[in-house]
Sequence to fold (632 residues):
Amino acid sequence: MTGTAAIVGTGFVGRAWAIAFARAGWRARMWDADPSVPEAARGLIGELLPELAKNGLLGDASPADVAARLEPCRELETALDGVDWVQESAPERVEVKQALFRDLDRLAPDSAVIGSSTSSIRPSLFTGDLPGRRRCLVVHPINPPYLIPATELVPAPWTAPETVERAREVMLAIGQSPIAMARELDCFVVNRLQGALLEEAFRLVDDGFCGAEDVDRALRDGLALRWSLIGPFETIDLNAPRGIRDYVARYEGMYAGIHEDQKRRVDWSGPVMDRIETERRARLPESAIPDRIRWRDRRLMALMAHMRKARTELGD
Amino acid sequence: MTGTAAIVGTGFVGRAWAIAFARAGWRARMWDADPSVPEAARGLIGELLPELAKNGLLGDASPADVAARLEPCRELETALDGVDWVQESAPERVEVKQALFRDLDRLAPDSAVIGSSTSSIRPSLFTGDLPGRRRCLVVHPINPPYLIPATELVPAPWTAPETVERAREVMLAIGQSPIAMARELDCFVVNRLQGALLEEAFRLVDDGFCGAEDVDRALRDGLALRWSLIGPFETIDLNAPRGIRDYVARYEGMYAGIHEDQKRRVDWSGPVMDRIETERRARLPESAIPDRIRWRDRRLMALMAHMRKARTELGD
Fold:
């Protein structure tokens, strides 16, 4: 399944979406409130494509194929004309989304899905008064979506079930891994799970049981290796002879015991932050952060290339 | 640094330790309460070594080199004679550990570190009355330690700091990633982090926001990809322009808001378990669990081979 997507807002997130759609064979129209940005975005994407190709992350397409599917537009009306999908990635302010969604809903064909990349704003807060609110929802990527497949689909109370289903199909078609929420909730799924783990991490360091690097080792060299293959529910399903019910019968008592401690919240910006920041800056000076981000992205690209190969060779 | 390790208890965990020590050049004496088990364990390890070699996970050693370093012993006294390290992996019952540690402390050289593989018993509960309690601690692997490097070092109140430091050096020398806790705590670090995330996962499914597979996608295709490279603290340190303090200034309010909900515990074996089990068994019948575990281990082996290669080629 291919079609035409309008990428509305072509900063870091919008550019990443343009790559995700275009490598899957979609035409990607690119529009931004600043009319000089889409052309520049096409240039930045062009620089990235060869490295993606080298890692096998463009599928059958060449960098030139993908680049040819990008269409910078100066007028929003032109960008939205006849599209199948609209992906809004404007700044994270509710009044910006409200104003923009009014235009998107007015200009996009009735049959188009309109998704917002917001990572934290409930869709009901900026789609409620739109005639076409049934086809609006949050489609939240974990950045960058051309490397990380998980994508949260969050409906407002009035989003039609067919909209969510259509969004799920489109995300699967472009190679994303959709998490379809039944209804909206603050922070959605991914950040709630991250927050729960971070709360325990800050508590462990604040109580002086271990340092920040120990927590990072626990995930990087431990838990996350399994979770990156099978997720936390499948992990415990495979960790007791008769599956997850058996696991819970054996270990729930242990976890229930520690949950009592987990009710106590530690102020992340309190004294614990001095300790964690000192530890982090000793490992990575602030001036080295941009280089480390580029390293992370190279490693992430290599990891995704490995995952693709391993799925083919060893199954999924 | 190499030496001789006594592997005490040669079931699944003990066998995995024998591999971890022997591939790093250590001699691994193997003893079990059932005297027929160590010979059988050597056979099982021998079957596994070629696949580890194929994935580059034996370092410079050949399967024959590693196998030649395994020494099944019938007598505990022989197994412990002159060793540098003792790794106990007996059944998880405190009275078993108490009785065994009395023998280990009596028979091992004064200079040897004595580690227990227990995943849940505080070391103070089975080392308190030993003359050599200063050199005893928990050395908890995330199974299997020849694939997953994270290893928790948990001291009792009387464990000497030099013991923890020596354990850290030995673990680094054999290629593990030590998490050195400052003092003991129920569930240690890894299971507390896992527990915190699982509590939120069960809550999300119980409240009907998403299914178990959605949670698995959120980690497998999302959070765990980054965490497997850089851990959760480095992840947020790289996710704001000026590092972790900047990230916390921007997002702590959001996380503090959801922590209120996270105080409410869901009974994992209540109605939510019916839903999760139905979903899991539809994806994986109980009879297919053993095959799936073998698949997981093959994928984990390939993943660790990738990580090793990527560290060499792209840095760490």
Q: What stands out?
A: Chain A touches chain B through 102 residues (CB under 8 Å). The beta strands of chain A are 4-8, 27-31, 70-72, 85-88, 113-116, 136-141, 150-155, 177-180.
